[in-house]
Amino acid sequence: MNRKWILTGAGLLWIALGVASGAGKLWAAPQDAAATPPKYTLAEYNAEEAAVKEQNPQNKIKLLDDFVKQYPNSTLMPYIYRAYYLTDYALKNYAGTLEYADRQLALGDKIDTQGRLEAEVARAQAYYVASNDKAFQTPDVLNKSRDAGVQGLKTLDEWKKPEAMPQDDYDKTKKGYTVLFNTIAAMTSMSLKDYPSAAITTRPSWRSIRPTRFPISVLAWSIANDTAAGDGWILGTGAFHCSQGANAAQVQTYLKNQLIRYQQPACDKLVDDQIGELITLAGGSADKPATLSVPSATDLQKARDDTANFLPALKGGGDAGKVMWLASCGLEYPDVAVFAMDAPAVDGDAITFKVYRPTTLEADAAQKELEAATDPNMQVKVGGQPEASKIKKGISSDSPARW
Q: How far is it, in rounded angstroms, from Cα 213 to Cα 196?
């Protein structure tokens, strides 16, 4: 008996995540049962064939039930269970799909990689479609579905391209199923309130999940806990995809508040700049750039305490300068003396002037450095202090200033 399993995505197992149409097609290598002596009777085989080939779904279920009752230990069960879960899916009996996909998978090494993958895809798709049903939100169903999604990813790693399958179809199919399995793992982890797992498994699926379904609480958890999966980057990627939806303004406000909570900075403008940078970068790649740094509140406090490197860090730029500026922006430094190198520029409530600040805190050395200075090494913006406009070129000021 020569069997070739081909599952087309146009009907039973259409993936509702917007992946390419090629990802809805699963090819299988022939299963050659004639290579070894059959372990079933002719009557048993005929009963299996009649059930599997029946076109009417209701009649098919009845024939499958009759077969299981008559031959409960049949070696043909892989074909029977497969027929069950595909037919149940067609009948929108998603609980039945999960049940018989699980029975198929429980056969272990009696089915090959192709058979496992097909059952795992069917199970994942059924859960995705039916997940809003309260019956699918019990701890038992959630845990089993999450485990199946994780196992699906492992099976996908083992799945080799069938010889007759075009490489492009294989690549699209594998990408689509990766999204599907990750999505199921993320959805179930969220429902179980296992946010660490949700944060990790959600990211590969962002580009295919509708923005309205994106789990915002994953972002909140990741940012609040500074996870390796998040490290701030999860905020940007989540913001990018969520901001494509109708509630973009609400989402970005929420995400801004989360970043403020994560960093506890004093300048909202710098938070807006960071959100903009993260969203822009996330729009170009789902992977965190190697050079991107999103400092935490701990990082900023460490920078504030490092007063000796205040000016060198700002002058040096790069990540250190970024962290130092984010840490110091909006704070008061009453002991910082600067030398005005030019007359201030007044723009409404804001006063900007170029100054020179000594690189040393030792009084005599600082005085000599000021006297020798010819060019500014810092630009200062002062807001809400109109008296700052009285500062003239050549006048030193050690009065408090909000930078």
A: 18
Q: How far apart are CA 361 and CA 359, in angstroms?
A: 7
**One domain, residues 41 and 145:** yes
Mean pLDDT of 321-326: 83
Q: How far apart are CA 234 and CA 223, in angstroms?
A: 8
**Inter-residue contact 330 to 345 (CB < 8 Å):** no
Beta carbons within 8 Å of 73's beta carbon, 6+ residues apart? none
What are the tokens at 185?
Answer: 């793992």
Residue scoring higher pLDDT (386 or 120): 120
> Which run of H or of E encompasses 3?
strand 2-3
Structure tokens at 152: 């699906």
Tens digits of per-residue pLDDT, 194-238?
Answer: 766 665 555 544 444 443 344 444 454 444 454 433 455 655 555
Nearest residue to 209 (alpha-carbon basis) of 254, 236, 178 = 178
The amino acid present at 240, given as its one-letter code, is F
- Hey, which residues does 7 pair with through a beta bridge? 26
Q: How far apart are CA 366 and CA 360, in angstroms?
A: 6
Check residue 132 and give its pLDDT: 87
Cβ–Cβ < 8 Å for 324, 313 = yes
Q: Quick one: 277 and 168 in the same domain? A: no
Same domain, 320 and 345: no
Summarised one tens digit per residue, pLDDT across range 351-360 is 777 777 777 6
Count of helices and strands (H, E) across the chain: 16, 9
Residue 378: exposure state from Cβ atoms within 10 A (0-12, 13-18, ≥19) = middle
pTM over 0.90: no
User: For 392, phi and psi rounded to 5 degrees?
Assistant: -110, 165
Residue 212 identity:
T
Asked if residue 350 and residue 221 are part of one domain, the reply reads: no
- Secondary structure, 3-state, 242-273: HCCCCCHHHHHHHHHHHHHHHHCCCCHHHHHH
* DSSP conformation class of 356: E
| Torsion sign over Cα 212, 185, 140, 115 | positive
Q: Which residue has the tokens 């970005």?
A: 252
The Cα angle at residue 336 between residues 330 and 337, in degrees rounded to 5 = 130
Residue 88, helix vs strand vs coil: helix
Task: Note down the domain range covering 355.
Answer: 338-397
Shared domain for 14 and 148, answered yes or no, is yes
108-134 tens-digit pLDDT: 989 999 999 999 999 999 999 999 899
